[in-house]
Design goal:
single chain; 200 residues; mainly alpha; amino acid transmembrane transporter activity
Length: 200
């Protein structure tokens, strides 16, 4: 428990911040499309990154600036594209009620969730390097820290994904979806700009 609880709290504090992953999970939850698949992909991806960081991948990532640069510019391009797509959605869709929205294939949703997770350098900085560094302060108990952080990730994505799904019937007005798409666009553009100018 000495390492498990700090791991849980540290993981939760890092993941709660609104980012590309969270925005996508919330929107798909509100659309009630492939929610379980998205929650599983995001939670498992985070857990893998947390355990890799605990195992020492953070030091390798920090020493390989070329790899971070490649991930950075892929991330900038993808997030910018996603932001533009959200802007178009906000201004062109006539009705975006969850029950009437076109169903997106599971493959496309999975690909988007994976891209928003693995093409974002901030994920590596927060999850692999930062969490990995803190975890290793616990020496032989570091794996318990990693378990705690992973549990926090599973809990968070489950809550926002299925919470949004449960709330979707109260948010069916088109204006709500236009505002949501606009906010998602702001999040994506903000992260893309940060990635472009952040000094890794």
């Amino acid at each position: 428990m000495i390492a498990l609880l700090p791991g849980f709290l540290t993981g939760l504090s890092l993941i709660i911040a609104i980012g590309a992953q969270n925005a996508f999970v919330i929107k798909q939850g509100l659309l009630r499309q492939h929610v379980l698949l998205i929650v599983l992909i995001c939670a498992i991806s985070d857990a893998v990154l947390i355990f890799l960081g605990t195992g020492g991948l953070g030091a390798l990532v920090q020493s390989n600036q070329g790899l971070l640069e490649v991930i950075r510019w892929f991330g900038v391009a993808y997030l910018t594209w996603f932001g533009i797509k959200s802007v178009k959605s906000a201004f062109t869709n006539q009705s975006l009620e969850a029950s009437e929205s076109p169903t997106v294939s599971a493959l496309k949703v999975a690909t988007t969730a994976l891209a928003l997770t693995w093409l974002n350098p901030h994920v590596y900085l927060d999850t692999v390097i930062l969490l990995g560094s803190v975890a290793n302060q616990f020496d032989s108990d570091r794996w318990y820290f990693a378990i705690g952080a992973s549990v926090a990730s599973v809990l968070w994505f489950t809550v926002i994904g299925f919470g949004a799904r449960a709330a979707s019937k109260y948010m069916s007005r088109p204006i709500f979806w236009k505002i949501l798409d606009s906010l998602i666009a702001v999040v994506m553009f903000s992260i893309a700009i940060t990635l472009a100018f952040f000094n890794f």
